[in-house]
Every structure is written in structure tokens, then in C-alpha cells.
Amino acid sequence: MTLRWVAGALSDAKGRLRKLRGHRDMNFLMTVLESRQTAVQASERKAA
After folding, report:
1. Collapsing DSSP states into helix, strand and coil, what is residue 1?
2. Would you kindly state where each structural domain of the chain is located, as residue ranges?
3. pLDDT range class, residue 32, cuts 50, 70, 90
């Protein structure tokens, strides 16, 4: 769901991407999202 929200936000900001605040933190955001995805996948494997 988090990935869907981020995709929606980026799609919404597509037209005004030059004005996107916090663009310098995009690498940090990607790192956090990847670690979150890994954690969710690990918990799903444990539950299965």
C-alpha cells in the first residue's frame, strides 16, 4: 500500500516536478521504502 501511495504522489507531482520540495531526500526515501518492503515480505513469509 505504501508503494501505491508513493506512486500516486509522484504521478500527481509529475507536472510540477521541478517544484518538488525535498527532492534531495529522494535517495533516503527509496532506502526506507526498500527496507520496509523487505520487512513486509519477511513477515509475509513467516505468516505463510
Report:
1. coil
2. 22-48
3. very high
